[in-house]
Design brief:
Layout lengths: L9 E5 L8 H4 L8 E6 L24 E6 H10 L5 H27 L7 H5 L16
Antiparallel strand pairs: 1-3, 2-3
């Protein structure tokens, strides 16, 4: 089935009263078919990461959220990445790690709340390389 250009490809459902304090119960759902569900939660935690792992921030949100994606579009996106779905997550974790290196855990928490942190704009807009491990990020 060919999707029309004007049709929305994804949907987000915010469910603030659906287990906001219990990530395990939040994840206990079963949806299959043409939809892929990407969960976001205030207490999202990857197995083995620990509660303070910066990688958890890739799926944290102020409210419990289910992001619904069309399977066909997810497959197309993964194919455009050479079949490696982990590239997007890896890039996001790399950015969060650089932000943590640049501004500390407290700074990342501020950024995730939408608060300004001095120097982050330069980091995000390419003044400092996110790929270079040999070039330190200068703090302002």
């Amino acid at each position: 089935m060919k999707r029309l250009q004007h049709e929305a490809g994804t949907s987000v459902i915010v469910v603030p009263d659906y287990y906001p304090d219990d990530f395990g119960s939040f994840m206990d759902f079963d949806l299959h078919g043409i939809i892929q569900v990407a969960p976001f939660h205030p207490r999202f935690e990857f197995e083995g990461s620990g509660a303070d792992g910066v990688d958890n921030l890739t799926n944290r949100s102020p409210f419990p959220i289910f992001h619904l994606l069309r399977e066909e579009e997810v497959s197309d996106a993964v194919e455009s990445l050479g079949g490696d779905a982990g590239k997007v997550w890896s890039r996001d974790v790399q950015l969060l790690s650089k932000l943590e290196e640049f501004s500390g855990k407290h700074g990342v928490e501020k950024i995730m709340r939408g608060e300004a942190v001095e120097g982050v704009d330069a980091l995000l807009w390419g003044k400092f390389s996110l790929r270079s491990k040999s070039r330190p990020i200068a703090k302002h």
